[in-house]
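User: My instructor asked us to take a sequence, write out its structure as tokens, and then describe one feature of it. I'm not sure where to start. Here is the sequence I was given:
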Amino acid sequence: QVQLVESGGGLVQAGESLRLSCVASGIIFSLNTMKWYRQAPGKQRDLVATISSRGSTKYADSVKGRFTISRDNAKNTVYLQMNSLKPEDTAVYYCHATWDTDYWGQGTQVTVSS
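Assistant: Let's start with the prediction itself. The structure tokens for your sequence are:
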């Protein structure tokens, strides 16, 4: 059974940092492209960052230079380091993988106060 479990969200002030984690099971993690999305209330779910099986990364313009996606294949874990957080980063953050279909974690709430 494929499972993605996010953690690390919380409430922080603008300018502070958080690191999100997503632990994957039920897939050959090292072969998967992993992604982070986020969704604010009333908004669509937007792609934030992508990391390929070989470690190449892509970022949304809104987070480029502030967020870093990384992976530890030995731990079946993908991370999102979020620095210089802004109130507009407030959202539920979701981990994503594609195997036989698309899989999503349950989400972790990030709230950035001003």
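For the description part of your assignment, you could build on this observation: Residues 34 and 97 are 5 Å apart (CA to CA). Try explaining in your own words what that tells you about the chain.
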